[in-house]
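ARCHIVE CARD
Drawer: 12
Card no.: 0347
Subject: one protein chain, sequence and derived structure
Cross-reference: see card 0346
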Amino acid sequence: MFAAIGAVEQKAADALVARSVEGGINFIDTANVYSEGMSEEITGQAIRNLNLKRDDLVIATKVRGRMSEGPNGNGLSRKHIIHEAEASLKRLNMDYIDLYQIHGYDELTPIEETLEALDLLVKSGKVRYIGCSNIAAWHIMKAASYSHYNHVSKFVSLQAYYTIAGRDLERELAPVLRDQNMGLMVWSPLAGGLLSGKYNRKMEAEAGSRRIKFDFPPVNQERAFDIIDVLEPMAKAKNASVAQLALAWLLHQRVVTTVIIGAKKLEQVDDNLKSTGVTFTADELLKLDEVSKLPAEYPGWMMERQGGDRRKK
């Protein structure tokens, strides 16, 4: 799986990190399972190779996936979390992790045990903040309640899939994030490359394109290409790329804190960085909202019907 997504070696990674930092990026996200730990090793080495100041960067990694055989080789138990945090620090060659995130939900481990283990890492100084990824709104609220009443570290952020071609997050997660004042970091903002401008309706693209090898995340392609049909002339009029507009749309969403780009080439970094300068008129945002909006579902449509008289401004 990671051969299709990554396959970037040290020299190329150094160049990508250098260009990103030059462009104003200071947040780097990885995970222990990415290429079985090699992503963390390459990330840490790139920072040292470039003589970057550690304290100027925000380094995030994750725990949950399988890193070894046996019952303790994955999950969110106290044993696995503490072991993997120490292993990640060793691979990164760092003294602390800025943001340590659970990479998903573990049905076998009580959230209380997970939070207590994460809190131990914060109190020890090995982790600064904790976050979550790929979990449901009710998981977040259950965790927030436990953290509040037991005075342990609270999830400060969610890393989740969100794109103009996949707006499911808006149903339950976005309201929870706003209510709990949590940050949102978007992964796969170009829908696994589908919104990069390289694909047509027949899903034909240049050789080696990621979605040809690894068709993920799942996307309603008919809706996605309806969106691209609106983005393309808009991008041409702005002298920008489809990818820039797809990223810029996310940056215009109130719930979004930051967008994680996954560039493998310097020209992709350069193109993605230009998205921060893209603006939309009210009419353009309306057009994009109309073509990409989610079908109404209960209880959302009932809340919309009933809630108008009590809505926050």
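Annotation on reverse: The chain is about 45% helix and 10% strand. The radius of gyration is 20 Å.
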